[in-house]
């Protein structure tokens, strides 16, 4: 799968398109094939290093809090969502 990532704080020039392994779905998680994403203030402030003391960050980071897409998989403890 493709993802936009960054490995260090800084400007948008640090963003890279890379191949990453498809994530495994946990018991109460949902996997979404993202069709659209937005950039909100948390995304750019975190990438710039302004929120490092508030939110735990492990590089590389795949930014994105606001997404829309299709549910690809659901964990066994997930009752509110279904594939599709």
Provide a descriptive summary of the structure in words:
The protein has one helix spanning 41-48, and strands spanning 2-5, 16-19, 30-38, 66-74. It is mainly beta and 84 residues long. The strands form two sheets. A two-stranded antiparallel ribbon has the order 1-2. Strands 3-4 form a two-stranded antiparallel ribbon. The model has no long low-confidence stretch (mean pLDDT 92). This is Alcohol dehydrogenase catalytic domain-containing protein. Residues 26-84 form the Alcohol dehydrogenase-like N-terminal domain. It holds the Pfam family ADH_N. Keywords: NADP.
Give a short summary of the structure.
This protein has a domain at 2-24 and 37-66. The protein contains 1 helix and 4 strands; from the N terminus they run βββαβ.
Main pleated sheet: 2 strands, antiparallel
Query: In percent terms, what proportion of residues is strand?
Result: 25-35%
User: Distance N terminus to C terminus?
Assistant: 18 Å
Strand order of the largest sheet: 1-2
Weakly predicted, low-confidence segments: none
Q: Quick one: overall form? A: elongated
Number of strands: 4
Element string (H = helix, E = strand): EEEHE
Distinct helical segment count: 1
SSE-based structural type: mainly beta
The overall pLDDT average reads 92
Radius of gyration: 14 Å
Helix content, binned percent:
under 10%
Keywords: NADP
Organism: Streptomyces sp. SID12501
Protein name: Alcohol dehydrogenase catalytic domain-containing protein
